[in-house]
TrEMBL record:
This is Uncharacterized protein. InterPro entries: ConA-like_dom_sf, Galectin-like, Galectin_CRD. GO terms for molecular function: carbohydrate binding; galactoside binding. Signal peptide: none annotated. Keywords: Lectin. Pfam families: Gal-bind_lectin. Gene3D superfamilies: 2.60.120.200. SMART domains: Gal-bind_lectin, GLECT. CDD domains: GLECT. It comes from Phlebotomus papatasi (Sandfly). The lineage of its organism: Eukaryota, Metazoa, Ecdysozoa, Arthropoda, Hexapoda.
Amino acid sequence: MTTSFSGQLACPVEFGHAFFVCGKSTGTADRVVFNLATGKNLGDIPLHISARFRANVVVRNNRVGQCFGAEETSPGYNNVKNPLVAGQEFKIYVLVGVDRFHISLNDVPFTEFMFRAPYRSIAVLQVLQDVEYIRQVDHRKVYPSPYPAVQVRSPWYSFSNDLPTIYNFGHVVVVTGIALGNALYNRIHRKHDGLTLSITEVDHVMKDKTLTNFEQLSRI
């Protein structure tokens, strides 16, 4: 069974923003794809990263309309072709620089990709293809001042999704998933503002608690 992620960003992309994705590819994976796109379906893709396991290469590219540009397939720093391994966890880190994206794979700087399209048009982050699970999709600000202030990688979290801005009036949080076993216990915790939503049982839709959290959101 494979999974994917395609999510709208909560705020516009700026210089100094960073994206961090952590997941695991399937044991028979052919590729894992990371996109920073302008839309979920037919939009442009200012940054397309395709880690191809059988070809042992990491392709960097962009797409305008339905047409991809010229592929960049040269090995990364230290002549590494593809540090990601099928069937193992992967980490993809992308920092928005002055005129290029800085890309790290598995905690090691890998390469750069010059802007071919305005990065401010990016509105969607996607993780696609042969992915077994995804447990971290963070959009953070690292310059000039970090937000969240503490940017930790949390392997004990089932899923992490940092935002580079505080929640404000009118923001809505939507969580969907499939429960495993007879009971579900998850916690969504917003540091700094104390907002917590706990789901304790599959059979109970905690209407009162949901309303309470929306009331807390409206007071931020």
